[in-house]
Amino acid sequence: MNTIKQIFNFIYKNSSAIIEDLKQFIQAESITGNNCKDRCVEYVTNLLYRSGFKKVNIFGNKISPIIYATTEFNPTYKTVLIYGHYDVQPYGNTSDWRFDPTSANVENNRIFGRGSSDDKGQVFAHIKAVELFRSHYENKVPLNIKILLDGEEENGSESFYDFVEQNLSLLNADCILSSDSNMIKSATPTICICARGICYFEVTIRRKCTKILHSGLFVGIANNPINILSLVINTISGLIWELNNQCTSFDKKMDKIISDLNMEELEKNRFRKIWGKYSFDCHAIKTNVECSEKETVIPSCAVLKASIRIPPCDLSKDDINKKLKKIIHQIELSDIEVDLKILGQGDPFYMEESPAISCMKEALEEVFLTKPYLVGEGGGMPVLGYLKKKINAEAVLSALGEETDNIHAPNESFSIDNLFNGIKSTILFLKKYSSIN
């Protein structure tokens, strides 16, 4: 029996113990932005040492610790950097959950709990794969493996960007491996090769006279911040329409991605818009007037929170920021003050065919017995795009989640089948990638 078959046989015989390991990971609290991650960090540290990592370091503060680990390093070997995050979204109303969010109950071949899919289950598949890969090959495969786990991905990764900037030599790698996305369809092997960027911003329109005014007495005299916001929204919508008409450089690449999808034309068009087009959405508008059926007043302040999604065409997040500032600066009214605040941002990315992607395609096909889809991601992955750019490495993003996983919502869960297929495909990927000259 060859080594790969031995490993897969070991996984089958020890499936209950592997699931129990993941349950402990889910049960270790790690809500983003909370000072409650000690137990989770301790669990991950021990897990990494058990998995063959020789050096585990904790960086940052108690609210958002960054975990970094590496196997023995040989400068003549290729290096794979595994990236993921262990922080999770808040639970919300626990009465909406079928089980306690930290109980990690298993039912209908799914494991339930906050972070089970996003991203503990998916990153656990990589860690367990490293453990089995190194133990069965007795560390004789020529491959260095590093891992980098973010403790505040769900909260914007603010300190993470600074850490990367200050530790580029530490993170140097030939390839980044990550899983933090959904398959195109249930139980369907999927590799994400492009993702939209984002510019999340806030516009505040404030009248210098801070009084709330009667509309019958001041209409046409005092500017209404809501009316001005509506003009801003209309102008940005026009910008998005213009950008989508100009964005032709990415169309041929998107045509190739879409043409390979085995689905109805209506579905293809939906994904074309989600992955390859600019979009603009308003998320909230607030004023200093309480809502009431009989309020006919003019507020003195209105605040818009909105976002622009950026496909991997010709413009970066910085280009979009400049266009937003230009729109805002066009508002020149003597009694109005305007403020634009960027709340979060990330560049889009597109990954050309590479040795790493080829290795993952082969690995997924061997495990799932069908060719994987190459897809886009509409929601954005700013950290991965930033990391890829900074260390100038190949990247491969293998999706292990599903749309039905309910990430960020009550009853989040993760498929047990996807867990084991993720472990197997990662093991095959590491073996194949280590063989590239």
Summary, kept brief:
This protein is an alpha+beta fold and 437 residues long. The model has no long low-confidence stretch (mean pLDDT 93). The chain is built from 14 helices and 18 strands.
Features:
Alpha-Beta Plaits, single chain, 39% helix, four-stranded antiparallel β-sheet, 23% strand, Aminopeptidase, alpha+beta, nine-stranded mixed β-sheet, 437 residues
Percentage beta strand: 15-25%
- Shape category: globular
* CA-based gyration radius: 24 Å
The CATH class name of the largest domain reads: Alpha Beta
Terminal CA distance: 26 Å
Percent in helix: 25-40%
List the total number of helices: 14
CATH topology of the largest domain: Aminopeptidase
Task: Give the rounded overall mean pLDDT.
Answer: 93
The second-level CATH architecture of the largest domain is 3-Layer(aba) Sandwich
| Structural category | alpha+beta
Biggest sheet layout: 9 strands, mixed
Low-pLDDT stretches: none
Q: How many domains make up the coordinates?
A: 2
Number of strands: 18
